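Hey Z.,

So I finally got round to the pyridoxal-5'-phosphate thing we talked about over coffee. Here's the setup:
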Amino acid sequence: MSRADFPIFNAHPELIYLDSAATTQKPQAVVDALSSFYSKSYATVHRGVYPMGERATELYEGARAYVAEFLGAKSADEVVFLRNATEALNLVAEAWGRPNLGPKDRIVTTIMEHHSNFLPWQRLARQTGAELVVLPVTGNGQLDMEAARRELQAGASVLAVTMVSNVLGTVNPIACLAAMAHAQGAVVVVDGAQAVAHRPVNVTQMEADFFVFSGHKAYAPTGIGVLWGRSELLAQMEPFLVGGEMVNSVSLKKTTFLDPPHRFEAGTPAVAEAIALKGALEYIKNIGFDSILGQEAALLELLLTGLGQIPGVSILGPEGHLREGLVSFLMDGVHPHDISGFLGEKGIAVRAGFHCAQPLHEALGIPATVRASIGIYNTEDDVRTFLRGLEDARALFTGERQWTTSTASR
Ligand code: PLP
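And the result:
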């Protein structure tokens, strides 16, 4: 795995990109997959009975089969191509949730959800009269498992939970939560947006009912996302969007829809992006999760240790617990936006804000944080340069220079 695989770093050799939790850069293999499809085989799918149309369909359906294998799904028919995780979560809430939930139901979610896995459920609860239960985090930034046990035992129809928090980096024990939720007959919806590029996912082993992710956070293009759903559930669901591509027959009196997954793919799909998603997942697979986990853990350690040595920095998220390679933090007396603006000027990309997780920031009593997040292309040098930049930011904004080890050794 190497920075050299990513053409963005040829165009910007000095760029230190630590914003992969927002979106990842693209390897040449993915750029090539897009370019090759558009320049050699472009056509839309499921329509043309001419060779190029058939080839496009073959590539698109091949991508679906690859995603299914990557996720450990039982069948490619359980994989629906959508625009992103947000669309997939809205689809689940609307196509499964709305017809199945009413005033007697409880929707259990967590305070660490991205707005994409919170707002569809909040709206559904408001409109159907279902109760929305929001599980808290502990002081250590982990999901409060006591509260989870208690609330799930009190009855739940759905558990909507993220696999990895995009703010805290917390990795949630999905299999354990799924077992508790299933004991109450709940459907388990897992947001895998921050997980898929960083750790192995097996939807069958984790016993999820729905699992979603966005391609663009896993080295694939924008505009392609995935909903995996258990076939029994998908089969019962009405389409979310209606239009071309997803029908069996349409007449003035009666319309019938295709079976899943095509029932949920109304309109011309993101064919090139789906094919390039396969390229991205192949790229990840070829590197292997052992090596990704090892490298990201080493960089995370360096990041956490370095941040811990900068006076006035407080780190969010679990200590001494499984966490992803993303770290949100605060610096005493310096606004997060000033830090990210200052680093940005130096060619270091990090994100500041509430990262589409406003309820979490509200619960923690903080307006915003800075987030540095690791991808497959990051190096120890990236992390060291970032830490030095942060010390400079501190010196500038607080008027103080502390001689820490890394400052002194520069
Ligand atoms: N869920 C999590 C945990 C995320 O971090 C994000 C994006 O930041 C999303 C969902 C939404 O992803 P998208 O904007 O690609 O739909």
